[in-house]
Amino acid sequence: MIERFLTQTHFVSEADYNEHLHFKIPEDFNFAYDVMDAWAEEAPDKLALLWTSERGEEIRFTFADIKEQTDRTAAYFQQLGIGHDDKVMLILKRHYQWWLSMLALHKLGAVAIPATHMLTAHDIVYRNQRASIKAIVCAGDPYIVSQIQAAMPESPTVKTLISIGPEVPTGFHDWAAEWPQAPAFVRPGHVNTNDDTMLMYFTSGTSGEPKMVAHDFLYALGHLTTGVFWHALSADSLHLTVADTGWGKAVWGKMYGQWFAGAAVFVYDHEKFAAAKIMEQMAKYHVTSFCAPPTIYRFMIREDFSQFDLSALQYCTTAGEALEPAVYNEFFRLTGIRLMEGFGQTETTMTLGTFPWMTPKPGSMGKPNHQYDIRLLRPDGSPCEDGEKGEICIHVGDRKPLGLFKCYYRDEVLTRQAWHDGLYHTGDLAWRDEDGYYWFVGRADDVIKSSGYRIGPFEVESALMTHPAVVECAVTGVPDEIRGMVVKATVVLAPEWRDRAGEALTKELQAHVKHETAPYKYPRIIEYVDELPKTISGKIRRVEIRQKDSQK
Q: How much is the pTM?
Protein backbone atom coordinates (compact mmCIF):
# COMPACT_ATOMS: atom_id res chain seq x y z
CA MET A 1 0.00 0.00 0.00
CA ILE A 2 2.55 2.59 1.07
CA GLU A 3 4.53 2.20 -2.15
CA ARG A 4 1.68 4.09 -3.80
CA PHE A 5 2.52 7.14 -1.71
CA LEU A 6 6.28 6.96 -1.06
CA THR A 7 9.23 6.76 -3.43
CA GLN A 8 11.06 4.63 -0.81
CA THR A 9 9.26 2.51 1.77
CA HIS A 10 11.98 1.11 4.03
CA PHE A 11 14.59 3.03 6.00
CA VAL A 12 17.51 1.73 8.04
CA SER A 13 18.92 4.90 9.56
CA GLU A 14 18.22 8.51 10.36
CA ALA A 15 20.30 9.64 7.39
CA ASP A 16 18.46 7.26 5.07
CA TYR A 17 15.07 8.53 6.29
CA ASN A 18 16.01 12.19 6.05
CA GLU A 19 17.48 11.83 2.58
CA HIS A 20 14.94 9.54 0.99
CA LEU A 21 11.55 10.29 2.57
CA HIS A 22 9.59 11.62 -0.40
CA PHE A 23 5.83 11.49 -0.82
CA LYS A 24 3.97 10.87 -4.06
CA ILE A 25 0.90 13.04 -3.61
CA PRO A 26 -2.17 12.03 -5.64
CA GLU A 27 -4.70 14.49 -6.96
CA ASP A 28 -7.93 14.58 -4.97
CA PHE A 29 -6.62 12.14 -2.36
CA ASN A 30 -9.30 10.57 -0.19
CA PHE A 31 -8.24 8.15 2.55
CA ALA A 32 -11.54 6.26 2.54
CA TYR A 33 -11.37 5.43 -1.16
CA ASP A 34 -7.64 5.40 -1.86
CA VAL A 35 -6.55 3.42 1.19
CA MET A 36 -9.48 1.64 2.85
CA ASP A 37 -11.36 0.61 -0.29
CA ALA A 38 -8.04 -0.32 -1.89
CA TRP A 39 -7.30 -2.63 1.05
CA ALA A 40 -10.77 -4.14 0.66
CA GLU A 41 -9.88 -5.02 -2.92
CA GLU A 42 -6.35 -6.27 -2.18
CA ALA A 43 -6.92 -8.08 1.13
CA PRO A 44 -10.68 -8.31 1.70
CA ASP A 45 -10.50 -10.96 4.42
CA LYS A 46 -7.73 -9.39 6.48
CA LEU A 47 -8.65 -8.15 9.96
CA ALA A 48 -8.89 -4.35 10.01
CA LEU A 49 -10.65 -3.54 13.29
CA LEU A 50 -11.03 -5.69 16.40
CA TRP A 51 -13.62 -3.96 18.56
CA THR A 52 -14.29 -5.17 22.10
CA SER A 53 -16.11 -3.72 25.06
CA GLU A 54 -16.20 -4.03 28.82
CA ARG A 55 -19.73 -5.40 28.30
CA GLY A 56 -18.25 -8.57 26.80
CA GLU A 57 -18.91 -7.70 23.16
CA GLU A 58 -16.49 -8.52 20.37
CA ILE A 59 -16.78 -7.65 16.67
CA ARG A 60 -14.14 -8.37 14.04
CA PHE A 61 -14.24 -6.19 10.94
CA THR A 62 -12.31 -7.22 7.85
CA PHE A 63 -11.33 -4.62 5.28
CA ALA A 64 -14.23 -5.91 3.16
CA ASP A 65 -16.59 -5.38 6.11
CA ILE A 66 -15.30 -1.84 6.56
CA LYS A 67 -15.96 -1.01 2.91
CA GLU A 68 -19.45 -2.48 2.92
CA GLN A 69 -20.45 -0.81 6.16
CA THR A 70 -18.92 2.60 5.40
CA ASP A 71 -20.67 2.58 2.02
CA ARG A 72 -23.93 1.87 3.84
CA THR A 73 -23.21 4.63 6.36
CA ALA A 74 -22.41 7.12 3.57
CA ALA A 75 -25.68 6.22 1.86
CA TYR A 76 -27.54 6.65 5.15
CA PHE A 77 -26.02 10.09 5.64
CA GLN A 78 -26.83 11.01 2.02
CA GLN A 79 -30.42 10.02 2.64
CA LEU A 80 -30.50 12.47 5.55
CA GLY A 81 -29.21 15.31 3.40
CA ILE A 82 -25.54 15.29 4.42
CA GLY A 83 -23.11 16.08 1.62
CA HIS A 84 -19.98 17.94 0.57
CA ASP A 85 -18.58 20.41 3.13
CA ASP A 86 -21.40 19.82 5.61
CA LYS A 87 -20.11 19.96 9.18
CA VAL A 88 -20.98 16.86 11.22
CA MET A 89 -20.10 16.49 14.90
CA LEU A 90 -19.43 12.96 16.16
CA ILE A 91 -19.94 12.28 19.88
CA LEU A 92 -19.53 8.53 19.79
CA LYS A 93 -17.10 7.64 22.58
CA ARG A 94 -15.32 4.40 21.60
CA HIS A 95 -18.28 2.83 19.82
CA TYR A 96 -17.44 1.27 16.47
CA GLN A 97 -19.90 3.59 14.70
CA TRP A 98 -17.24 6.31 15.04
CA TRP A 99 -14.99 4.55 12.52
CA LEU A 100 -17.91 3.93 10.16
CA SER A 101 -19.02 7.57 10.43
CA MET A 102 -15.56 9.04 9.95
CA LEU A 103 -14.90 7.09 6.76
CA ALA A 104 -18.44 7.65 5.47
CA LEU A 105 -18.07 11.41 5.88
CA HIS A 106 -14.75 11.23 4.00
CA LYS A 107 -16.55 9.40 1.18
CA LEU A 108 -19.06 12.24 0.95
CA GLY A 109 -16.52 15.06 1.16
CA ALA A 110 -18.20 16.23 4.35
CA VAL A 111 -16.33 17.65 7.36
CA ALA A 112 -16.00 15.40 10.39
CA ILE A 113 -15.79 17.11 13.79
CA PRO A 114 -15.01 14.53 16.50
CA ALA A 115 -15.93 15.63 20.00
CA THR A 116 -15.67 14.21 23.49
CA HIS A 117 -18.70 12.84 25.32
CA MET A 118 -17.92 15.10 28.29
CA LEU A 119 -19.17 18.26 26.56
CA THR A 120 -21.79 20.31 28.35
CA ALA A 121 -24.71 22.02 26.64
CA HIS A 122 -22.68 25.25 26.70
CA ASP A 123 -19.76 23.51 24.99
CA ILE A 124 -22.06 22.07 22.33
CA VAL A 125 -23.71 25.44 21.64
CA TYR A 126 -20.27 27.02 21.24
CA ARG A 127 -19.20 24.39 18.72
CA ASN A 128 -22.49 24.40 16.82
CA GLN A 129 -22.43 28.15 16.40
CA ARG A 130 -18.71 28.54 15.65
CA ALA A 131 -18.63 25.78 13.02
CA SER A 132 -22.22 26.01 11.70
CA ILE A 133 -22.68 22.33 12.44
CA LYS A 134 -25.43 20.73 10.39
CA ALA A 135 -25.72 17.30 11.99
CA ILE A 136 -24.73 15.49 15.18
CA VAL A 137 -24.23 11.73 15.44
CA CYS A 138 -24.08 10.61 19.05
CA ALA A 139 -24.09 7.75 21.49
CA GLY A 140 -27.52 7.52 23.05
CA ASP A 141 -26.36 7.91 26.64
CA PRO A 142 -28.66 9.90 28.95
CA TYR A 143 -26.04 12.58 29.64
CA ILE A 144 -25.04 13.07 26.01
CA VAL A 145 -28.54 13.31 24.59
CA SER A 146 -29.71 15.59 27.39
CA GLN A 147 -26.85 18.03 26.73
CA ILE A 148 -27.55 18.00 22.99
CA GLN A 149 -31.25 18.62 23.59
CA ALA A 150 -30.45 21.52 25.92
CA ALA A 151 -28.20 23.04 23.24
CA MET A 152 -30.71 22.91 20.40
CA PRO A 153 -32.61 26.17 21.10
CA GLU A 154 -29.36 28.08 20.51
CA SER A 155 -28.16 25.93 17.59
CA PRO A 156 -30.11 27.07 14.51
CA THR A 157 -27.73 25.47 11.98
CA VAL A 158 -28.25 21.94 13.31
CA LYS A 159 -30.82 20.18 11.13
CA THR A 160 -30.22 16.50 11.88
CA LEU A 161 -29.67 14.52 15.07
CA ILE A 162 -28.80 10.81 14.98
CA SER A 163 -28.53 8.51 17.98
CA ILE A 164 -26.92 5.08 17.80
CA GLY A 165 -28.80 4.12 20.99
CA PRO A 166 -29.67 2.86 23.44
CA GLU A 167 -31.71 6.04 24.00
CA VAL A 168 -33.31 7.62 20.93
CA PRO A 169 -35.26 10.65 22.15
CA THR A 170 -37.94 12.42 20.13
CA GLY A 171 -36.30 14.44 17.38
CA PHE A 172 -33.39 12.02 16.90
CA HIS A 173 -33.05 9.59 14.02
CA ASP A 174 -32.64 5.97 15.11
CA TRP A 175 -29.40 4.61 13.64
CA ALA A 176 -30.15 1.03 14.66
CA ALA A 177 -33.53 1.03 12.91
CA GLU A 178 -32.70 3.16 9.87
CA TRP A 179 -29.09 2.30 9.01
CA PRO A 180 -29.82 -1.30 7.86
CA GLN A 181 -32.42 0.05 5.41
CA ALA A 182 -30.07 2.55 3.74
CA PRO A 183 -30.15 2.45 -0.08
CA ALA A 184 -27.20 1.43 -2.22
CA PHE A 185 -24.41 3.96 -2.04
CA VAL A 186 -23.73 6.09 -5.08
CA ARG A 187 -20.38 7.84 -4.98
CA PRO A 188 -20.73 11.57 -5.65
CA GLY A 189 -19.38 12.73 -9.00
CA HIS A 190 -16.91 15.02 -7.26
CA VAL A 191 -15.98 14.31 -3.66
CA ASN A 192 -13.06 16.57 -2.76
CA THR A 193 -9.86 18.29 -3.74
CA ASN A 194 -6.71 18.00 -1.65
CA ASP A 195 -7.33 21.49 -0.28
CA ASP A 196 -10.90 20.88 0.88
CA THR A 197 -11.53 20.64 4.61
CA MET A 198 -11.82 17.01 5.75
CA LEU A 199 -11.59 17.25 9.53
CA MET A 200 -11.87 19.85 12.26
CA TYR A 201 -10.91 19.62 15.90
CA PHE A 202 -11.68 21.99 18.71
CA THR A 203 -8.48 22.23 20.74
CA SER A 204 -8.47 21.55 24.47
CA GLY A 205 -8.51 25.18 25.51
CA THR A 206 -5.76 25.00 28.16
CA SER A 207 -5.51 28.79 28.19
CA GLY A 208 -8.71 30.06 26.58
CA GLU A 209 -11.73 29.15 24.45
CA PRO A 210 -11.17 26.16 22.15
CA LYS A 211 -9.84 26.94 18.68
CA MET A 212 -11.16 25.28 15.53
CA VAL A 213 -8.27 23.53 13.82
CA ALA A 214 -9.11 22.80 10.16
CA HIS A 215 -7.30 20.02 8.27
CA ASP A 216 -7.39 19.27 4.56
CA PHE A 217 -7.70 15.83 2.93
CA LEU A 218 -3.92 15.41 2.80
CA TYR A 219 -3.78 15.45 6.60
CA ALA A 220 -4.57 11.73 6.58
CA LEU A 221 -1.65 11.08 4.23
CA GLY A 222 0.59 13.03 6.62
CA HIS A 223 -0.05 10.34 9.25
CA LEU A 224 1.53 7.61 7.14
CA THR A 225 4.79 8.28 8.96
CA THR A 226 3.01 8.11 12.32
CA GLY A 227 1.83 4.54 11.92
CA VAL A 228 4.32 2.99 9.55
CA PHE A 229 7.54 4.45 10.92
CA TRP A 230 7.02 5.87 14.41
CA HIS A 231 4.72 3.04 15.55
CA ALA A 232 6.76 0.63 13.39
CA LEU A 233 3.60 -1.19 12.30
CA SER A 234 3.16 -3.88 9.69
CA ALA A 235 0.30 -5.99 8.37
CA ASP A 236 0.95 -8.43 11.23
CA SER A 237 0.49 -5.84 13.97
CA LEU A 238 -2.42 -5.52 16.38
CA HIS A 239 -2.22 -1.95 17.62
CA LEU A 240 -3.88 -0.29 20.59
CA THR A 241 -3.78 3.44 21.21
CA VAL A 242 -5.49 4.64 24.38
CA ALA A 243 -7.46 7.71 23.36
CA ASP A 244 -11.02 8.91 23.38
CA THR A 245 -12.33 9.40 19.84
CA GLY A 246 -13.06 13.02 20.64
CA TRP A 247 -9.33 13.77 20.88
CA GLY A 248 -6.96 14.43 17.99
CA LYS A 249 -4.86 11.54 19.28
CA ALA A 250 -7.54 9.13 18.03
CA VAL A 251 -6.69 9.68 14.37
CA TRP A 252 -2.98 9.57 15.28
CA GLY A 253 -3.32 6.09 16.73
CA LYS A 254 -6.64 4.47 15.88
CA MET A 255 -7.11 5.10 12.18
CA TYR A 256 -4.96 6.69 9.49
CA GLY A 257 -1.36 5.62 10.02
CA GLN A 258 -2.31 2.18 11.29
CA TRP A 259 -4.37 1.36 8.21
CA PHE A 260 -1.72 2.68 5.84
CA ALA A 261 0.42 -0.09 7.35
CA GLY A 262 -2.36 -2.65 6.94
CA ALA A 263 -2.31 -3.26 10.70
CA ALA A 264 -5.36 -4.28 12.71
CA VAL A 265 -6.66 -1.60 15.08
CA PHE A 266 -7.66 -2.87 18.52
CA VAL A 267 -10.36 -1.03 20.45
CA TYR A 268 -11.51 -1.57 24.02
CA ASP A 269 -14.76 0.32 24.58
CA HIS A 270 -14.89 1.22 28.26
CA GLU A 271 -16.32 3.93 30.45
CA LYS A 272 -13.72 4.50 33.15
CA PHE A 273 -10.02 3.92 32.72
CA ALA A 274 -8.34 1.31 34.87
CA ALA A 275 -4.82 0.20 34.05
CA ALA A 276 -5.52 -3.40 35.05
CA LYS A 277 -8.49 -3.64 32.67
CA ILE A 278 -6.43 -2.37 29.75
CA MET A 279 -3.61 -4.75 30.56
CA GLU A 280 -6.05 -7.68 30.78
CA GLN A 281 -7.29 -6.92 27.27
CA MET A 282 -3.75 -6.55 25.95
CA ALA A 283 -2.93 -9.98 27.35
CA LYS A 284 -6.15 -11.65 26.19
CA TYR A 285 -5.96 -10.46 22.59
CA HIS A 286 -2.14 -10.50 22.25
CA VAL A 287 -1.73 -6.82 21.42
CA THR A 288 1.64 -6.31 19.72
CA SER A 289 1.89 -2.52 19.65
CA PHE A 290 0.76 0.01 22.24
CA CYS A 291 0.61 3.80 22.44
CA ALA A 292 -0.63 5.90 25.33
CA PRO A 293 0.10 9.21 27.03
CA PRO A 294 2.62 9.11 29.89
CA THR A 295 -0.21 9.30 32.44
CA ILE A 296 -1.38 5.83 31.36
CA TYR A 297 2.12 4.40 31.75
CA ARG A 298 2.37 6.02 35.19
CA PHE A 299 -0.68 4.03 36.28
CA MET A 300 0.46 0.85 34.54
CA ILE A 301 3.80 0.66 36.32
CA ARG A 302 1.96 0.64 39.64
CA GLU A 303 0.27 -2.64 38.68
CA ASP A 304 1.64 -6.14 39.31
CA PHE A 305 3.00 -7.04 35.86
CA SER A 306 3.31 -10.71 36.83
CA GLN A 307 -0.48 -10.94 36.61
CA PHE A 308 -0.56 -10.12 32.88
CA ASP A 309 0.97 -12.05 30.00
CA LEU A 310 2.22 -9.24 27.79
CA SER A 311 4.66 -11.45 25.91
CA ALA A 312 3.07 -10.53 22.56
CA LEU A 313 3.90 -6.87 23.12
CA GLN A 314 6.76 -5.81 20.87
CA TYR A 315 6.72 -2.02 20.59
CA CYS A 316 5.47 0.90 22.71
CA THR A 317 5.17 4.61 22.00
CA THR A 318 3.98 7.63 23.93
CA ALA A 319 2.80 11.16 23.14
CA GLY A 320 0.29 13.73 24.31
CA GLU A 321 2.47 15.16 27.07
CA ALA A 322 6.10 14.96 28.05
CA LEU A 323 7.42 11.67 29.43
CA GLU A 324 9.23 11.64 32.76
CA PRO A 325 12.45 9.60 32.63
CA ALA A 326 11.41 7.81 35.83
CA VAL A 327 8.39 6.34 34.03
CA TYR A 328 10.51 5.31 31.06
CA ASN A 329 13.05 3.57 33.27
CA GLU A 330 10.50 1.66 35.34
CA PHE A 331 8.52 0.49 32.30
CA PHE A 332 11.73 -0.70 30.68
CA ARG A 333 12.67 -2.56 33.87
CA LEU A 334 9.29 -4.29 33.93
CA THR A 335 8.96 -5.14 30.25
CA GLY A 336 12.32 -4.75 28.52
CA ILE A 337 10.56 -2.43 26.05
CA ARG A 338 11.86 1.07 25.42
CA LEU A 339 9.20 3.78 25.21
CA MET A 340 9.58 5.72 21.95
CA GLU A 341 8.36 9.27 22.45
CA GLY A 342 6.76 11.53 19.87
CA PHE A 343 5.57 15.11 19.78
CA GLY A 344 2.95 16.94 17.80
CA GLN A 345 -0.16 19.03 18.18
CA THR A 346 -3.77 19.08 17.08
CA GLU A 347 -2.47 21.40 14.34
CA THR A 348 0.09 18.87 13.05
CA THR A 349 0.93 15.23 12.66
CA MET A 350 4.05 13.97 14.46
CA THR A 351 6.70 16.68 14.17
CA LEU A 352 9.37 15.18 16.45
CA GLY A 353 9.85 11.54 17.28
CA THR A 354 12.03 8.67 18.35
CA PHE A 355 12.06 6.32 15.37
CA PRO A 356 13.00 2.60 15.40
CA TRP A 357 16.47 3.29 14.04
CA MET A 358 17.19 5.69 16.92
CA THR A 359 18.35 4.99 20.47
CA PRO A 360 15.83 6.70 22.76
CA LYS A 361 17.00 9.09 25.41
CA PRO A 362 14.59 8.86 28.34
CA GLY A 363 12.57 12.06 28.50
CA SER A 364 13.55 13.31 25.05
CA MET A 365 10.93 13.82 22.34
CA GLY A 366 13.42 12.58 19.76
CA LYS A 367 14.46 14.34 16.57
CA PRO A 368 12.59 16.21 13.84
CA ASN A 369 10.41 14.16 11.53
CA HIS A 370 11.85 14.98 8.10
CA GLN A 371 8.30 15.59 6.90
CA TYR A 372 8.68 18.99 8.59
CA ASP A 373 11.40 21.64 8.55
CA ILE A 374 11.76 22.18 12.29
CA ARG A 375 13.44 25.31 13.64
CA LEU A 376 14.27 26.06 17.28
CA LEU A 377 14.12 29.84 17.58
CA ARG A 378 14.72 32.65 20.05
CA PRO A 379 12.00 35.32 20.55
CA ASP A 380 13.73 37.52 17.94
CA GLY A 381 13.52 34.73 15.35
CA SER A 382 17.21 33.82 15.35
CA PRO A 383 18.23 30.15 15.69
CA CYS A 384 19.07 28.69 19.08
CA GLU A 385 22.37 27.07 19.87
CA ASP A 386 22.52 23.57 21.32
CA GLY A 387 21.50 23.67 24.97
CA GLU A 388 19.55 26.91 24.57
CA LYS A 389 15.81 27.04 25.15
CA GLY A 390 13.67 28.22 22.28
CA GLU A 391 10.31 27.83 20.58
CA ILE A 392 9.64 24.88 18.30
CA CYS A 393 8.63 26.34 14.94
CA ILE A 394 7.86 24.83 11.54
CA HIS A 395 9.25 26.56 8.49
CA VAL A 396 6.68 26.82 5.73
CA GLY A 397 8.10 27.30 2.25
CA ASP A 398 6.27 27.56 -1.03
CA ARG A 399 4.11 24.57 -0.16
CA LYS A 400 2.40 23.80 3.15
CA PRO A 401 4.03 20.78 4.79
CA LEU A 402 2.03 17.59 4.56
CA GLY A 403 0.01 17.25 7.76
CA LEU A 404 0.09 20.89 8.87
CA PHE A 405 -3.32 22.43 9.47
CA LYS A 406 -4.97 24.85 7.03
CA CYS A 407 -6.00 27.54 9.51
CA TYR A 408 -7.99 28.25 12.61
CA TYR A 409 -11.42 28.16 11.02
CA ARG A 410 -13.14 31.55 10.89
CA ASP A 411 -10.37 33.20 12.89
CA GLU A 412 -7.89 35.03 10.67
CA VAL A 413 -6.42 36.98 13.60
CA LEU A 414 -5.57 33.85 15.57
CA THR A 415 -4.20 32.18 12.46
CA ARG A 416 -1.87 35.11 11.77
CA GLN A 417 -0.69 35.16 15.37
CA ALA A 418 0.47 31.55 15.09
CA TRP A 419 1.47 31.47 11.42
CA HIS A 420 3.47 34.39 10.07
CA ASP A 421 6.77 35.26 8.38
CA GLY A 422 6.93 31.81 6.83
CA LEU A 423 6.75 30.05 10.21
CA TYR A 424 4.14 28.20 12.19
CA HIS A 425 4.78 28.90 15.88
CA THR A 426 3.84 25.94 18.05
CA GLY A 427 4.04 27.87 21.33
CA ASP A 428 6.00 24.97 22.82
CA LEU A 429 9.50 25.47 24.19
CA ALA A 430 12.33 22.97 24.05
CA TRP A 431 16.10 22.70 23.94
CA ARG A 432 18.27 20.60 21.66
CA ASP A 433 21.27 18.60 22.84
CA GLU A 434 24.54 18.05 20.98
CA ASP A 435 23.15 14.87 19.36
CA GLY A 436 20.15 16.67 17.90
CA TYR A 437 17.57 15.31 20.39
CA TYR A 438 14.87 17.74 21.57
CA TRP A 439 13.84 18.07 25.20
CA PHE A 440 10.50 19.55 26.20
CA VAL A 441 10.47 22.62 28.47
CA GLY A 442 6.82 23.69 28.48
CA ARG A 443 4.31 25.97 26.86
CA ALA A 444 5.70 29.45 26.24
CA ASP A 445 3.08 30.97 28.54
CA ASP A 446 3.86 28.41 31.28
CA VAL A 447 7.57 29.24 31.66
CA ILE A 448 8.42 30.70 35.07
CA LYS A 449 10.83 33.65 35.31
CA SER A 450 12.37 33.68 38.78
CA SER A 451 15.39 35.73 39.90
CA GLY A 452 16.58 36.00 36.30
CA TYR A 453 16.18 32.27 35.59
CA ARG A 454 13.74 30.82 33.03
CA ILE A 455 12.34 27.62 34.53
CA GLY A 456 10.27 25.18 32.50
CA PRO A 457 7.49 23.47 34.49
CA PHE A 458 8.32 20.09 33.03
CA GLU A 459 11.86 20.20 34.39
CA VAL A 460 10.54 20.46 37.94
CA GLU A 461 7.66 18.06 37.35
CA SER A 462 10.07 15.42 36.05
CA ALA A 463 12.16 15.72 39.20
CA LEU A 464 9.13 15.47 41.47
CA MET A 465 7.80 12.44 39.61
CA THR A 466 10.86 10.42 40.55
CA HIS A 467 9.72 10.51 44.20
CA PRO A 468 7.45 7.57 45.11
CA ALA A 469 4.98 9.84 46.89
CA VAL A 470 3.99 11.73 43.73
CA VAL A 471 1.36 10.42 41.32
CA GLU A 472 0.73 13.65 39.42
CA CYS A 473 1.90 17.22 39.72
CA ALA A 474 1.67 20.60 38.04
CA VAL A 475 4.26 23.34 38.41
CA THR A 476 3.34 27.00 38.07
CA GLY A 477 4.73 30.39 39.01
CA VAL A 478 3.47 32.51 41.90
CA PRO A 479 4.19 36.27 42.03
CA ASP A 480 6.90 37.22 44.53
CA GLU A 481 8.05 40.73 45.47
CA ILE A 482 11.73 39.78 45.64
CA ARG A 483 12.17 37.11 42.95
CA GLY A 484 9.46 38.20 40.55
CA MET A 485 8.01 34.71 40.68
CA VAL A 486 8.64 31.59 42.72
CA VAL A 487 8.04 28.00 41.76
CA LYS A 488 4.93 26.29 43.11
CA ALA A 489 4.10 22.59 42.80
CA THR A 490 0.52 21.33 43.07
CA VAL A 491 0.82 17.66 43.94
CA VAL A 492 -1.43 14.60 43.94
CA LEU A 493 -0.02 12.03 46.36
CA ALA A 494 -0.12 8.25 46.09
CA PRO A 495 -2.78 6.80 48.46
CA GLU A 496 -0.23 5.39 50.88
CA TRP A 497 1.40 8.83 51.27
CA ARG A 498 -1.68 11.00 51.71
CA ASP A 499 -1.72 10.91 55.49
CA ARG A 500 1.85 12.23 55.46
CA ALA A 501 0.99 15.47 53.65
CA GLY A 502 2.52 18.32 55.63
CA GLU A 503 5.66 20.27 56.38
CA ALA A 504 7.96 17.27 56.75
CA LEU A 505 6.96 15.79 53.38
CA THR A 506 7.20 19.22 51.76
CA LYS A 507 10.81 19.56 52.93
CA GLU A 508 11.53 16.03 51.73
CA LEU A 509 10.14 16.78 48.28
CA GLN A 510 12.02 20.07 48.06
CA ALA A 511 15.27 18.35 48.95
CA HIS A 512 14.52 15.65 46.41
CA VAL A 513 14.09 18.20 43.60
CA LYS A 514 17.34 19.93 44.58
CA HIS A 515 19.07 16.58 44.28
CA GLU A 516 17.47 15.64 40.96
CA THR A 517 17.92 18.95 39.12
CA ALA A 518 19.46 22.40 39.50
CA PRO A 519 18.72 23.61 43.05
CA TYR A 520 17.34 26.99 41.93
CA LYS A 521 14.37 25.18 40.34
CA TYR A 522 13.01 23.67 43.53
CA PRO A 523 9.39 24.49 44.46
CA ARG A 524 9.30 26.95 47.34
CA ILE A 525 5.57 26.30 47.67
CA ILE A 526 3.92 22.86 47.59
CA GLU A 527 0.17 22.38 47.75
CA TYR A 528 -1.43 18.95 48.11
CA VAL A 529 -4.68 18.29 46.25
CA ASP A 530 -6.88 15.28 45.46
CA GLU A 531 -6.88 16.00 41.72
CA LEU A 532 -5.54 18.49 39.21
CA PRO A 533 -7.74 20.70 37.03
CA LYS A 534 -7.80 19.33 33.50
CA THR A 535 -9.36 19.98 30.15
CA ILE A 536 -11.98 17.60 28.79
CA SER A 537 -9.17 15.90 26.84
CA GLY A 538 -7.17 15.29 30.01
CA LYS A 539 -4.51 17.99 29.77
CA ILE A 540 -3.54 19.82 32.95
CA ARG A 541 -4.89 23.36 33.10
CA ARG A 542 -2.02 25.25 34.74
CA VAL A 543 -3.81 28.47 33.82
CA GLU A 544 -6.61 27.54 36.23
CA ILE A 545 -4.13 26.96 39.04
CA ARG A 546 -2.55 30.36 38.33
CA GLN A 547 -5.96 32.04 38.32
CA LYS A 548 -6.90 30.54 41.69
CA ASP A 549 -3.56 31.60 43.17
CA SER A 550 -4.03 35.17 41.93
CA GLN A 551 -7.37 35.38 43.76
CA LYS A 552 -5.93 34.34 47.12
A: 0.86
